[in-house]
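Incident log, structure service

09:12 report received: a user says their structure output differs between two submissions of the same chain.
09:20 pulled the input from the user's history:
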Amino acid sequence: MTENYGLPDLGATWDGAGTEFAVYSAEATSVDVLLFDSPRATPKERLPLARAGGFIWRGRAPGVGPGQLYALSVDGPYNPAKGHRFNKNKALLDPYARAVAGPLRWDDSLFGYQLEDPQGGSSFDTRDSSPFVLKGVVVDPSYDWEGDRLPRTPWRDTVIYEAHAKGYTKLKEDVDAAKRGTYSGLSSPGTVAHLKDLGVTAVELLPVHQHVDNRFLVERGLTNYWGYNTLGFFAPDARYARPGVPGGEVEEFKSMVKELHSAGIEVVLDVVYNHTAEGNQFGPTLSFRGLDNRAYYKLQKNHSAAYTDFTGTGNTLNTGHPFVVKMIMDSLRYWALDAHVDGFRFDLAPVLARPDHEIDLFSPLLQAIHQDPVLSKRKLIAEPWDLGRGGDLQGMFPPPWSEWNGRFRDTARGYWRGDHVPLAEVATRLAGSSDLYTRGDRGPTAGVTFVTCHDGFTLRDLLSYNEKHNEANGEENRDGWSNNLSWNCGVEGPTSDPTVVAMRRRQSMNMLGTLLLSQGVPMILGGDEFGRTQGGNNNAYCQDNETSWVDWREGSMDLALTRFAKRAAEIRRSSPIFRREEFFRGAHNGDGRKDIAWLRPDGREMTTDDWHGTRERAVGMLLAEDPPSTRDFLMVLNGSPGDVAFSLPPRGGGWEVILDTSVPVGFPSEPRFVDGDAVVYGRSLQLFRSSQR
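09:34 re-ran on a clean worker, output below:
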């Protein structure tokens, strides 16, 4: 049974005999529901809603049930100079629609003003947009969860895997052809088996909320593939579901969650509550703008015709408005309670902390999330930066939040590339970034560590290209990051040169090993574990094709790299010392060993001068944990091109080499023991475990 607490009271609610519609608009003069027989039809019926107090408009439609398509028509003042953009001629998507029928078809009638207007937005357009807009779908909310229970994996044990709901399985041949590229494909047996073998405990999905493909992309024959262009915060995007009855994607999404849960895998959604698909003041009127523009959007002070833009997309949701806070909270609770989602990654999260224009970590929205008995117990991950003033909040989000650790990414890349990254910086990132996360009594799990993510090069491309190759995006290669700290190992692009191939694999293993054996919560970009490429495109947001789809063909996969990633993940999983909830103290345990010590190649502990120098590129991290019977681990990183003789600290049984990125598969094929000095080859990582021989 679905819990009732916190489920939305707005939108379209079917009660078994009819549907009640409820819509918020503070300054509308009338609100009608439009009913449609098909997505491209004009309305067959218009149902007026009545004011019901609290700026809510309500009405009940007897006999209207699941599968019915609907939109809204809202009348009110049209005065852009004062922030009013009502236009009853524009059919609007209900923000609370639980399912959406589409896709949207771009037409000039979607704009509330006449595009030919030289004043840009001050005119009024009277054309009917209803044949072109997205339609809400009335759904049956019932679903048999069959005793589904959330895995509730502790942060310390969490390994996140970032994937796209379509692209991850679109080319996966062991998935039934009808399910490839769908929610069902993500939870298919072959997909789940791969994730489990890799030690993944949570799949973080790029946005699955209903989104819109930007007009300029459609005109180029492209799409907004990543989905960071949301219009429906309550609806799973139907494009990731198998064709069927309208609204069937809701049940398919829930079934995906249930299947992943049965395998012990959590589902985290990447959510975009910072802006919508309507763009700036010259954008279309699709939903929020025509419902209550002044409530939903941050408008510029002293210039209400224009929008404040902290997101780079043209608009910013008004997260200081009580109803916008309510809508976001309703959306989060809906996904948590009705869809059993385990957590959320918030895109450009500082926007949530801008009730007005300045940052306030005690903003109404953040306080509401902290106090909510459901959401405060889900996984909450912030992308801790936006484009506004003071928008870099790395390390500042309070408990129970975790954050993407961008400094770990930059440090790991720079060190293995050979940049002069101070070893003190490297050590701080390996040990959990205490400089960032001690504030507010947080620990290493406050940082989600990563080397690559959807935004930028894949791991293979990071090591294969010095320059981005985004020509297919249609922006003359001007888009995307200019500096990804890439290093092509001597040859630009694909190559069959065995020396270059071996070095790229070694560097890939170095990156993955550093990620999986550092303190924090590791996140792997889907496909990096077997060398997925995007052909050098580091901004593939608009490439819904084989550029972005994960290539599962055996000849395209680096299976040796996959085996290494699985081995490193297994070591992390079986050894609590790599999964600490508290920072190392650098203090002695009961038997005289320090919980962490940093070693020079000569075996001595690092000095102050060693930390601040940049010439020495090899360092050892010696980990010891109570009780004394626990094995010690020594991870040695050599970021220099030359080999280093590293003096191992004495242990009674010596040391066993359990990872070595200088060998083809990243670990010895047979047990290998070392006493005294070990040779750590150039640009390689070795992990030693004290032996119990």
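09:41 both user submissions now match this output. Likely a transient worker issue. Closing.
09:42 reviewer note: The two ends are 54 Å apart (CA to CA). The chain is about 20% helix and 20% strand.
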